[in-house]
Amino acid sequence: MKKLQPFVRCLSALAVAVSLVSALVAPHPARAQRSTEGTIVPGEILVGMRPTADVPGRSARIVEALGIGAEQGHSFTLHVGRVRLGARISASQAMSRLRMAPGVEFVEPNHYLHAFVQPNDPYFAQQYAPRKTQADSAWSVWKPLRRAIIAIVDTGVDSTHPDLKDKILRGGNGQVIGYNALTGRFGDAKDDYGHGTHCAGIAAAQVNNRTGVAGIAGWTGSGSDSYWTKIMPIKALDRNGQGSDASVADGIATAAHLGANVISLSLGGPNPSSTLQRAVDFAWNAHDCVVVAAAGNSWDSSRQYPAACTNVLSVAATDATDTLAPYSTFGSWVATAAPGDSIVSTMPTYHCTLNDYGYPSNYATLSGTSMACPLVAGEAALLWSENVTGNGHVTGWILRNTDPYRPYWGRIGGGRVNVLRAVRAALP
What we know:
Blueprint: E1 3-4, E2 40-49, H1 58-65, E3 69-75, E4 80-85, H2 91-99, E5 104-111, H3 129-132, H4 135-141, E6 148-154, E7 179-180, E8 185-186, H5 195-204, E9 229-235, H6 245-257, E10 262-265, H7 274-287, E11 290-294, E12 313-318, E13 336-339, E14 343-346, E15 363-367, H8 369-386, H9 391-400, E16 402-403, E17 416-417, H10 419-426
Parallel strand pairs: 6-9, 6-10, 7-9, 10-11, 11-12, 12-13
Antiparallel strand pairs: 1-15, 2-4, 2-5, 3-4, 7-8, 14-15, 16-17
Helix pairs in contact: 4-10, 5-8, 6-7, 8-9, 8-10, 9-10
């Protein structure tokens, strides 16, 4: 679901109201090391001596006499010693003993620190959503253990886009692993409308590749990752952004069959459907998929489907000020919110020829809960890849780690997502 920015001239053809808006793989790289950001170095403490009492060997003798362990290093510039604890003493016990020792000024844990990363994608400065949700900080914390696949069930995805081509799920011979529910054909699902490509970029455009924008899913804080999170293009809406319960349900079920871990649905309508519910249940129960859907752009509390289906994580839209967007559907049935207003992302290279606001023709700004939905799908992919539990845990981490929004805090079931807090919570 979307609200178009009228100044994007190449997208004027998209401003049509729609009823349903909107294999062998590459070798496994070296396994990333698990991040311990936000925790302490196990078995170590730091002992600060008063400068006048810090003579060579004194702190080491104190540590040994108290039966704490052994000093592993000492800075006479800082008057701080690094102590390795013995096997039979805890850090809290050791610190309690040392605080009483003569000449000791302070005792503290030896904390891990981490690099604050900044991607080199040219339009990252125009992307407020990664900073608002702290995804930019989460990238340096996230250390994946398994690949996560995000199915974009929409109008298709431009698999040739320079910001997406290396993130598209492909088989051993390079063919795209996807599906067109309108034709029943497997393979590349070309986007002839633009909506699906825009959503794909929000979820998982390649980060730190000196190109375009930074997606939420897929950067370990160094280099430019194209392995750990992948995009599966599923076309269920036509060139006018329209589909049906049947085409969308087929897209959901096939995405689950093809191995998707997260299914992103930036589409919907006001009518409940047992067919859609059955497809969602199949993805959730039989294939352990996380299913995320846009709440709608009706600015009322009316339920939209599949967002209101059981086992779906429904997403409202907020803006750069953390205010619930004036078009976003709300209500206690809506699970969470994410930035969805004025979001710059990828567009099909072959779809647009002109842009008035400095972006190349294959980037544009759109607004709507359609833009909020793939951000949460990208967050779900990060959580899925770093922990081996399941869809219920992933959804729980997202919902338990949110921030307030305004001015209607409490107008939906939860808060605005915080990717960093969720990634930290999911670390085993």
